[in-house]
Here is the input.
Amino acid sequence: MNIHIYDDDRQIGLAAGCCICSQVIQKPNSVLGFATGSTPLKPYGVMIDLFKKGAVDFSKVITFNLDEYVNLDVADKNSYHTFMRENLFNHINIPPENINFLDGNADDLEAECKKYEDKIKAAGGIDIQLLGIGSNGHIAFNEPADIFPRASHVVKLKESTVNDNSRFFNSIDEVPTKAVTMGIGSIMQAKKIIIIALGEKKAKAIKQLISGEVTPECPASMLQFHPDVTLMLDRGAASLL
Ligand code: PGA
Here is the structure.
C-alpha cells in the first residue's frame, strides 16, 4: 500500500487528478471507476482543468460509477447521475454512451446488477478505481456486514450512512434507504485503486483499513489484500496512524 499524507485537500486533488489524467494519457481508452461524495470533488476539478488546458483527452474513456440510490429519479439533484454530470461529465469529453451507472430504478435490480458486472468484464475491467471511505469503513455502499459482498448488489443503508448523507437533502426523511452498489469483489478486481480520505472523522476507518483486522465489519479492510492501492490522506484522516 502506498500511503501519502498531504497538508490539504487541494494537494490531494492535484495528486489524484494527475494520476487519473496520467493513466488516460498513457492509455486513452482507459476504463475508469468513479466515486461520488465530497471526497472526489477536488480531483474532478483538476481533471476538468487539465482537459480545458488541452493536456488530456477523455474521448475514448469508459467509466463505471460505484453506486446509485434506489428509487431516486436520475434527474433528482441528489442522484449520483446528477452529481457526476455537474461535477465532471458536463465539463469534459467522455461520450455519453461510454458512461455507465447502475440503474437504481430498474424493475429487476438483481438482473441490473448482473448486467453491470458483465459490462465491466466486457470493457476489460477497471484500470483505476477512485474511492472515498465512509466513517464506518464502507466503500461504495458496501456497509459493515457479516460477509464481504462479492459482486454488484442491492443494499439497505446503515443508519450512520443515511445520517452522513442527510447533509445533502432537505431532511433526513428524504434520504433513500436503499442503493445499488458494486461489491467488494468488483472493486478488488480493479487494476489500481486510489482511495482518498479527508478529515478526522475518517481517521478510525483509515487506521483499520491499513492495520486492522480484515473483517467485513470494516469493508475497506479488504483493500489490504489488493496489490496496488494508493492512499491519499489529509492530516486529519491520518491522525491515528
Ligand atoms: P464523502 O463520502 O466523500 O462524502 O465523505 C465518502 C463515502 O461515504 O464513501
User: Anything to note?
Assistant: Strands lie at 2-6, 31-34, 62-65, 67-69, 99-100, 128-131, 153-156, 178-181, 192-197, 229-234. The mean pLDDT is 96. Residues 92 and 159 are 35 Å apart (CA to CA).
